[in-house]
Design brief:
Length: 297
Amino acid sequence: MAATFKGIDVSHYQENIDFSKLKGKVDFVIMQIGYGRYTSQIDPYFKRNYEQCKKYGIPCGGYWFSYAVTAEDAKKEAAACLEVIRGKQFDYPIYFDVEGKSLVGRSGVSAMCKAFCNALETAGYFAGIYISRSPAQTMLTSDVAKRYALWLAEYGRSCNYGGSYGMWQYSSTGRVSGISGNVDMNICYVDYPSAIRSKGLNGFGKTPAAAVSKILDPDGYKQGQQSPGILAVKSMLSIAKRLGIVSQGVDANGIFGKGTLKAVNELLKRWGFTPNGIVGDKFISRLQDEISKKIGG
């Protein structure tokens, strides 16, 4: 393979990067967006790194560090990632970073990669997988390895992977202007910016019909139900009312009643979603974030 683009990947470990010095020294930057299943788990430097790339015209992509061990976990991580990157544009893929404890075996890893990447694609993004070369060979089924953009890590003079891949991370001890310490170095063999823009992906075109839905959670707790989980949700809504996040109070019992329904729909409307009265993982995550910000701010 002949190298076509040279870039770096960054996260909070690089702290305050001087992007004015970085401009012209790299062809692209892949940045950590966040990790885990909650939108609150955003990389503390993601916002700055993204804004600086846009300011200095440096093409960028992103990755979401996974802690998933099941496909369901990966779906929740994809939902959190999509929420964080909403309204932003990326010239390079959004990668599912699978390593460490998430390397749960061939079928498990492949199922997680499918779940995350399919969710990103449904929402109009060019999805890929970041994984080290050895587990790429042992933990990805051939259909998954061929289906999504691969970004492989193997430090040294060559990447010893037998199949095709789009990007190779060849060092973790690189040095570039604008960054005081070490940084990961990458070579990309695909013109992702042209492919992404021509297809209108990653925020550069019309959102696909599948992503237009304004439903936040299609499934979850709903009116008439009673469970410990609903009690926990009602407790959160009561806290939200005390903090001024929502005006409607909840029912004074253990049931998901009319008052709780009104409070849920009030929040869904304010967030820009269809008020379907459903409290799922995304609703809970958003409400947790709002409460945390209110208390912390």
